[in-house]
Structures are given as C-alpha cells and as structure tokens.
Write a structure and sequence with these properties.
Helices cover 49% and strands 15% of the residues. By secondary structure, the protein is of the alpha/beta class.
C-alpha cells in the first residue's frame, strides 16, 4: 500500500513541476508551424549567386526541409533561375 501512495505522490510532484515549467516558459517562442526564408535581391547584383548558395548551405546545415524563396527584384536571370532549381529554391521575378 505504501508503494501506491509513494507512486501517487511522485506523479503529483511531476504534475506540479510540469505546471511550473509551463508558467515560466509560456512566453518563450516555440518552433511550431511552418517557416519560410524569403530572399529579395536584384539578379544583376554580383552577390546574388553567392546568396543563393549560402541560403542553400544554411538550409542543409540548420534548417532541414525549410522552403527558401528567392524573389528577384530585377529583370530576371536565366542562370540564377537554373541554379535555384538545382538547389531546390523557388525563384520568382517581381
């Protein structure tokens, strides 16, 4: 009978700790939902290709599966569009 009482006390203690944890950390951001990375840059900018490659490298290293969207604010560039498709990055021209 004592083991049953001790088990209930342990469960109650864990519930109290969980409630305190919820109260203390309720204001912190949580990783829920979907996130997307938007890159706005003119394709004539010399760093555009480097930005695409850096975004792909960051996604592979830290943000696995996160969609990356490159939004070209210029006239568009066929080479950058090809590179974006090779890197599985969505490419749009404004």
């Amino acid at each position: 009978m004592e083991i049953f009482i001790y088990s209930l006390a342990a469960v109650g203690f864990i519930c109290i700790l969980w409630a305190i944890y919820g109260i203390l950390f309720s204001g912190f951001p949580r990783a829920e939902g979907c996130a997307e990375l938007y890159l706005f840059l003119d394709s004539r900018d010399p760093g555009a290709e480097q930005l695409l490659r850096a975004a792909n490298r960051a996604r592979r290293t830290f943000l696995k599966g996160m969609p990356v969207l490159f939004i070209d604010t210029g006239d568009g560039c066929e080479a950058l569009e090809r590179l974006a498709s090779e890197l599985d990055i969505d490419y749009f021209v404004m």
